Amino acid sequence: MENHKHHIVEYLTNLYVWVGLAVLTIVTIWVSEFDLKMLTVAVALGVATVKAVLVLMYFMHLKFDSKILTVMVIVTLIVFLSMIVFTFFDYTFRA
Amino acid sequence: MNHSIPSGGFFDNEGKPAWLAWLTTTDHKRIGLLYFYSLTVFFLVGVILGLLMRLELINPGKDLVEAQTYNGLFTLHGVIMIFLFVIPGVPAVFGNIALPLLLGARDVAFPKLNLLSWYLYIGGAILALSTLLVGDGPPDTGWTFYAPYSVKTGTNVSMAVLAAFILGFSSILTGLNFLTTIHRMRCPGMSWFKMPLFAWALYATSWIQLLATPVVGITLLMIVVERWLGIGLFDPALGGDPVLYQHLFWIYSHPAVYIMILPGMGVISEIMPTFSRRRIFGYKAIAYSSLAIAFIGYFVWGHHMFTSGMSGPARIIFSILTFLVAIPSAIKVFNWLATMYGGSIDMKPPMLYALGFIFLFLIGGLTGLVNGALATDVHIHDTYFVVGHFHYVMFGGTGFAFFAALHYWFPKIYGRMYDVKAATRAFWVLFTGFNVLYFPMLVVGMMGMPRRYYDYLPQFHLPNLISTVGSWITVAGLIYMIVVLVKGYRKGATASANPWDGLTLDWQTDSPPSKENFDTIPTVTEGPYEYK
């Protein structure tokens, strides 16, 4: 069951993604020069998330594979985030 | 009547010495049996430790062992039963044996990885049992290894948590194997909703094994790091937080409860239609409820920590979420009962164990609601009520489902039939013993007797005495069951390929199946339980 043909990604697409990742890395370093106060971590994590999504979609072929794999990754992320959120929820309200 | 051990089908060693053929096998059925034999040994060790605990508790005061020995007994009983029997139990044994057969596949997706999982399991088990024999004595922390005590005690905690860490790897690899097998190796025509419900249960279980187990692996390593390097992760004296340990531990260990129970529920979903001669009621509801239990099960761990200093709002949230998980569990129970309604019920041993499961799991589940409610939990937390509750779920649920699966697939595995009447008698002895053993724990817990003490106040004597007598009846039932099955294995009548008239693919091949399972890969055209 569920045998899929492997999608071959063009070299040019991979190159664009690689350039995108490199640019985002430069953005991360550049942004760190500014004092964004509370947003410092959020911005760094936001850029890192965009980079992770690019890697997942193109280098790990989620964009071209069965949608069920995307669902699996999303569910996994929800579970992982929930673990962190619930734990910190306790810490936030602790006397 | 046969008088030799089974030798046909996958028992054929193909010219190799038996020990070499078994220890290097990549056949899922043989690996399932390797798990079965090793699990049985560890289960019996756990039973003996439990029996010794009950003997110590027959009277108030010291009867048999010192307090420190008792602490070691309950810790090792917990570690062995949880990590070596209940968690791997149904998936490692019957998942391995039955899953490829149910899917119409020749093996699991990664047979060599499957064998590696068993070797890791054995390695972890040897390390766990070694804590008895070397160093400063067995750990005395309880199977939960709560910090900061686990960081400070001089007993063999590091070795025990490393054992649990290795066992976790075995569990992760099995989960990964089953997930891939279910996605990739279903036979032609077997769409997701034509898949047997045991496979659905294993699918949900595998997700928990894959996602939750790494958390406890890292957590247990943190204990070792703190013990060896003195880094203050959990010890408040070093700036650590013991409640953080409890969060991390239960993030895995509560979903692990569903690793234990979900495969058992899958077994019951196979047995109910076969022995009721009826199509299963609410197939999709049972399939989805397995996924729902697995998913919601990730978010309820905080109910183990209601009295541990967790914040008020977090306690309320976790309590509400805990009640949510009861819904999919209840859906399953309702559907099993509805399957039997109007069916032509055949009270053979697998069905008896399945019904025993439902009865005992109901008591376990309903007493779980008492634990899940904030106010009542404060009263019964860390009392024998909790011990009674989880034994009803773990032993009454998973244990009885394990025995149900064993009696169900026994003729398929060995090609032999056990004495059905004797197996029925063994069930009743075990079922009676179980309730005499564990029900008094619920009562004495309500009365206020705390768990994990080798002594107790005189007013708790009678329930403890009854419970200890129950442990003897339970052990008698277990011995009787083992004798019946060993006799069936050695001298039982030859079983047909399909002695229970099952409709799933496992019953459409020889007993015992060949190494390749099927002569030709079957094609499925209808659902797995289409009884006419």
Describe this entry's structure for a reader:
The complex is a heterodimer of chains A (95) and B (532). By secondary structure, chain A is mainly α. Chain A has helices at residues 11-31, 39-59, 67-93. The N and C termini of chain A lie far apart (54 Å). Chain B has 532 residues and is mainly α. In chain B, 66% of the residues lie in helices and 1% in strands. Chain B has helices spanning 18-23, 28-56, 67-86, 89-103, 111-130, 149-152, 157-184, 197-229, 242-276, 283-296, 312-340, 349-372, 374-380, 384-414, 420-446, 461-491; strands at residues 416-417, 493-494. In chain B, strands 1-2 form a two-stranded antiparallel sheet. The two termini of chain B are 34 Å apart. The chains are: A mainly alpha (95), B mainly alpha (532). Chain A binds chain B through residues 1-3, 68, 75-76, 79-80, 82-83, 86-87, 89-95, and chain B through 183-188, 190, 211, 215, 243-244, 247, 251, 295, 298-299, 302, 309-314, 317-318.
Could you say which overall geometry of chain A the principal axes of the C-alpha atoms support? Answer: flat
Strand count, sense and closure of the main sheet of chain B?
2 strands, antiparallel
CATH architecture of chain B: Up-down Bundle
For the biggest sheet of chain A, the summary is:
none
Classify the helix fraction of chain A into a percent range. over 70%
CATH top level label of chain B = Mainly Alpha
Strand content of chain B: under 5%
Looking at the structure, the CATH topology of chain B is Cytochrome C Oxidase, Chain A
Spatial ordering of strands, largest sheet of chain B: 1-2
Cα-based radius of gyration of chain B, to the nearest Å = 23 Å
Number of helices of chain A: 3
Number of helices of chain B: 16
Total domain count of chain B? 1
Radius of gyration of chain A: 18 Å
Q: Report the span from N to C terminus of chain A.
A: 54 Å
Number of separate strands of chain A: 0
In helices, the fraction of residues of chain B equals 55-70%
Ends apart, CA distance between termini of chain B? 34 Å
